[in-house]
Amino acid sequence: MANQHSTTEEQGKRHRHEGPQKHIVAFIFSIVLTVIAFALVAAGEINESFIYIMLLAMAVLQVFIQMSFWMHMKDRGHLFAIVAILFGVFVVLTIVVMAEFWTWW
């Protein structure tokens, strides 16, 4: 009769379950970034350039958090998805830059 029970080493090689701890931390970090963004905009007396830079930085952080923890892009086997997303970002940035040049001329 074949051994139906696998060892913990074999289970660890197949799939490692992270547990909810990292998701809870990522969720709290996302909420904190959102609250900071709302507070910056609601303050009103802060320099507009500083607000735009901070909002952009927090948006980039938010994207990395969403991609790595909620969409599991940090795990193995997601190379095609990552390349597709990066290509999409490249296409969108190219379109935005070309639209800017088109409106300037």
From TrEMBL:
Q: Which UniProt keywords apply?
A: Cell membrane, Membrane, Transmembrane, Transmembrane helix
Which Gene Ontology terms cover its molecular function? cytochrome bo3 ubiquinol oxidase activity; proton transmembrane transporter activity
Biological processes, Gene Ontology terms? aerobic electron transport chain; electron transport coupled proton transport
Q: Per its UniProt entry, which superkingdom is the organism in? A: Bacteria
The membrane topology of this protein is: Multi-pass membrane protein
Single GO cellular component term: plasma membrane
Q: Which family does it belong to?
A: Belongs to the cytochrome c oxidase bacterial subunit 4 family.
What name is this protein filed under?
A: Cytochrome c oxidase subunit 4
Q: What is the lineage of its organism?
A: Bacteria, Bacillati, Bacillota, Bacilli, Bacillales
